[in-house]
Amino acid sequence: MRMTVFGTGYLGATHAACMAELGHEVLGVDVDAVKVDRLCQGEVPFFEPGLPEILSRHVESGRLRFTTDYAEAAEFADLHFIGVGTPQRKGDFAADISHVEDVVARLAPLVSRDAVVAGKSTVPVGTAARLQEIADRSAADGVRVDVVWNPEFLREGFAVEDTLRPGRIVVGLSDPECAARALIDEAYAPIMESDPCPVIVTDLATSEMVKVSANAFLATKISFINAVSEVCEAAGADVTVLADAIGMDPRIGRKFLGAGLGFGGGCLPKDIRAFMARAGELGAAQALTFLREVDTINMRRRDKMVDLAAEVCGGTVIGTTVAVLGAAFKPNSDDVRDSPALNVAGMLSLKGARAVVYDPQALDNARALFPTLAYADSALEACEGADVVLVATEWGEFVELEPAAVARVARGRVLLDGRNCMPGERWREAGWTYRALGRGVSAPADARAVAGAAAAVAGSAALARV
Ligand SMILES: NC(=O)C1=CN([C@@H]2O[C@H](COP(=O)(O)OP(=O)(O)OC[C@H]3O[C@@H](n4cnc5c(N)ncnc54)[C@H](O)[C@@H]3O)[C@@H](O)[C@H]2O)C=CC1
Ligand SMILES: O=C(O)[C@H]1O[C@H](OP(=O)(O)OP(=O)(O)OC[C@H]2O[C@@H](n3ccc(=O)[nH]c3=O)[C@H](O)[C@@H]2O)[C@H](O)[C@@H](O)[C@@H]1O
């Protein structure tokens, strides 16, 4: 079947390419002409494993095209997916839904026969109903544009796999009997034939809330373990062992109990804030006040990492060099939106350290967002002359770093593990001080290394003041 996808960012470009992979004819639409040009050449303008292969294959075959032309899109198909951004609104916590509104307001008048708009963007509950009103107002006489909601649960880094083999498909309809259902069923029919998953058909409001509730739960789980991690730090307990142990209870589960620098990215942080804001608008603010704490705990982890860097440097990071390994908000992505890694690098720099950042995929995005930080082209280059090496994103290549190789270029012997991902014992055996969030201070041998590092740092601080 034919379909369009409005918005060709992380979500939209993936959805468009995967729909083509499923055998559909797809037209991707974006207002960003530069992005559309690159996509037309078969190039993915961001890093997402597996996406370039399928996107270029279908652009070449002609099954997948991209345009900035809304009129062409209105004519091309009867099913229009929306995957445009819903960022945090400037000045408050609410979601900015102006882009989704813009799509419907511009598309509906151009549609010449009945059509379905299927929203995939993450939106505050009530948005679909509002879009239906816009569609009803803007569509030509005798033309019906039905708005349905079909939230997306893909994870960056696994976006292709998650789209082609989803865990569930949620469809929100204003009327269970409406004709729109048949078009959505047709779009996902190839998945149902090859690798079926549960399909939950519900009303619009529930479908919108399923999505934000899922993200709020994941964020809460991460902040829960990070709050426990703070107590572990105070008590000298080990949060990673604790997470393994509680995670063995199938009612809890080990996933999303990864303690460390906490969650970032273009979704979890803004989605919990927008959920709180919407609950407030609906008169249910009390219901979600705990999400404010979830947010606060999350942001506190970043401060804690900066404090830990100061502690291992003898009280201050002024004049020190810190190698920050990682810039993306998580591995297997080049996304630096609300990245804990860059936030920590920025804070270290503001406190007087020279933060040298390296990331295997996110350097261009990081440079564009934080042009004043120092950047290196490899992990070892970032570690050159570093007093402290701080792992902020758990890329595999960092986990596999050889302590001896890093020791040859670094000045200090302190490894800070912001993701509890490094083989700490190996680094300790190689003479490094290994410190991680949520795990008590290490053995006396490490204390000597800290003292050594502090002395080196004091020396470099003195040099910096000259
Ligand atoms: N990134 C992800 O992993 C996931 C994102 N989501 C949700 O999907 C939505 C999009 O997120 P991303 O793809 O990450 O954002 P993004 O910022 O990467 O992409 C948004 C795209 O929409 C385009 N756009 C803006 N206004 C437009 C308009 N009027 N017409 C056509 N295109 C327009 C922008 O130029 C941009 O290319 C958000 O609501 C997000 O919460 C949901 C699940 C996963
Ligand atoms: O709505 C969205 O955009 C998406 O948001 C998240 O996906 P994503 O942001 O790609 O990344 P996650 O894997 O969920 O990680 C989010 C953040 O939490 C952090 N995290 C994750 C897991 C964990 O145990 N600990 C932890 O700190 C990660 O480092 C990362 O910064 C959800 O997992 C997706 O289901 C959802 O579709």
TrEMBL record:
Record field: catalytic activity: UDP-alpha-D-glucose + 2 NAD(+) + H2O = UDP-alpha-D-glucuronate + 2 NADH + 3 H(+)
Q: Which UniProt keywords apply?
A: NAD, Oxidoreductase
Q: Which SUPFAM superfamilies match?
A: 6-phosphogluconate dehydrogenase C-terminal domain-like, NAD(P)-binding Rossmann-fold domains, UDP-glucose/GDP-mannose dehydrogenase C-terminal domain
Name the enzyme's class: oxidoreductase
In alphabetical order, the GO MF annotations are: oxidoreductase activity
EC number assigned by the record: 1.1.1.22
* Residues covered by the UDP-glucose/GDP-mannose dehydrogenase C-terminal domain: 323-424
Q: Which Pfam families match?
A: UDPG_MGDP_dh, UDPG_MGDP_dh_C, UDPG_MGDP_dh_N
Keyword presence, Signal: no
Q: Does the keyword NAD apply?
A: yes
- What metabolic or biological pathway is this protein involved in? Nucleotide-sugar biosynthesis; UDP-alpha-D-glucuronate biosynthesis; UDP-alpha-D-glucuronate from UDP-alpha-D-glucose: step 1/1
Q: Which family does it belong to?
A: Belongs to the UDP-glucose/GDP-mannose dehydrogenase family.
NCBIfam families from the UniProt entry: NDP-sugDHase
Which protein, by its recorded name, is this? UDP-glucose 6-dehydrogenase
Species per Swiss-Prot/TrEMBL record: Dietzia aurantiaca
